[in-house]
Predict the 3D structure of the following.
Amino acid sequence: MAATVLNMAFNQCSRRVQPLRRAYFSGCGGIAAAAAAARSACTRSPNFSGRICSSYREISTEIFEPAQSGRASGSDLHTFDVVVVGAGIIGLTIARQFLLGSNLSVALVDAAVPCAGATGAGQGYIWRVNKSPGSHKWELAVRSHGLWEALAESVRNEGLDPLQTLGWKKTGSLLVGKTSEDCADLKKSVDKLVDFGVSAVYLNRDDLLAEEPALKLGDAHGAAFVPGDFQIDAKRTVAYIEKGNRKFAAEGRYVEFYYEPVTSLLRDESSGEVVAVQTKKNMIRGKKAVIIATGCWTGSVMDQLLKDSEIDLDFPVKPRKGHLLVLDNDNTVELNHALMESGYLNHASAAGVSAASDSDATSISMTATLDPMGRLVLGSSRQLVGFDTEVDETIVQRIWDRAGDFFPALKEVSLQDMIDNRKVRVGLRPYMPGGAPKIGPVPGFPKMFVVAGHEGEGLTLALGSAEMIFDMTLGNTPRVDAEPFSM
Ligand SMILES: Cc1cc2nc3c(=O)[nH]c(=O)nc-3n(C[C@H](O)[C@H](O)[C@H](O)COP(=O)(O)OP(=O)(O)OC[C@H]3O[C@@H](n4cnc5c(N)ncnc54)[C@H](O)[C@@H]3O)c2cc1C
């Protein structure tokens, strides 16, 4: 290893180079046993305001301390095997995968907390009915679906109720068509799903009405139905995964750094390897990997982190705003399954975005389900309006009106009357042109990986994505072809 570390984001600033004289173990409580063994060798530099662990000496005998950089004084160094940046469902499940699947230590770093991003808004459908068998995402979707089922099973084996713990409900999935054209397409999809081993059926109007009597249906209505699809509650699931991850804190393998936006990267000067991330308070070193999982912020995070590098890397993820309306449901609408109108597929696709300019790319399509509390969850909207997360009442009204087209009982109630009994969830889906997330190494930046861009499927694809990056990092034989997701 070279003797210096390049602090990329600050390398425009004037620097003071200070030799490490003594180090001092930071006592972060989360560094692996191996690091603990190094404590005794730690010394502290009297002139360096941060505390530096001796294991850092492997990579640095000199520390660049930018004079006017804005880097916080008192910056601690923590060393882990893997640093995961972003604690949405993607970052959390990546951390979980490393903790359960290896003996590596993990730091999870977030600008805020796990449900601050898209994850807290998600409807929770873990579906196959809306996927295209044989497409580039199919294998990952099926793998991930199976991993979610296994997770629900392991919750049951712990003596816990998956409904209470994860909001896990085997609702089945109904993709509803409104025209004969839609229905012809749905029949073809069902045939394809069956060919690929998924138990799926096409329901004509009468069959659909028997399943969901609350629907108002015309003659041309029909639905694709996958009884084995299910939903989770994102907040309950996040709480469960977080709790599981924290069990590893006691053995020094896991630390969360919340409310700490990552501001810069540190690279080894000679090898170019990414060795650490810097927050305002801490420098967090990843010996094996630094994994960026910052959802729709990944483009700006990468720009910030790589801005001083000579490598030009465009990560074109965009925030795609979505609203969901959650209503106390005094039996206004009884639902037996979770639903989505088939037009949703066009809205979610890449074509839906590229065909329209940013301003007119707003779309509303009906989704409806009951959450674990029995509340009616209605969706959803898609807008490309930057990073704005304000509730837009005109969008909420359009979601309500759209739901009323399918559930006449809602037409008898005014949304205004529900004002005290409603919540609106807003989140920014990480939309990636091409429609597939990026999962893999960042070209030109050894030991740095990215997992982002899951748009409206991040909950569905989380466990498979986590497994994929885990396998890549450790050089394991891939369980799913990663090629469609490479950068
Ligand atoms: C209305 C709506 C409904 C949805 N319904 C479904 C559904 O039914 N099924 C499904 O599968 N998916 C659904 N999704 C999509 C799903 O919620 C997302 O794909 C998923 O949550 C993305 O997860 P993520 O971890 O990539 O991003 P996020 O949850 O956005 O997490 C990114 C994290 O990065 C952090 N961060 C940002 N910048 C920094 C920085 N500089 N340093 C450190 N941390 C940083 C943020 O604070 C945030 O916590 C829905 C989304 C919306 C909005």
In short: Confidence is low (pLDDT under 50) at residues 1-74, 350-359. The longest helix spans residues 138-157. Residues 168-231+318-431 form a domain with the D-Amino Acid Oxidase; Chain A, domain 2 fold (CATH 3.30.9.10). Residues 118 and 175 are 23 Å apart (CA to CA).
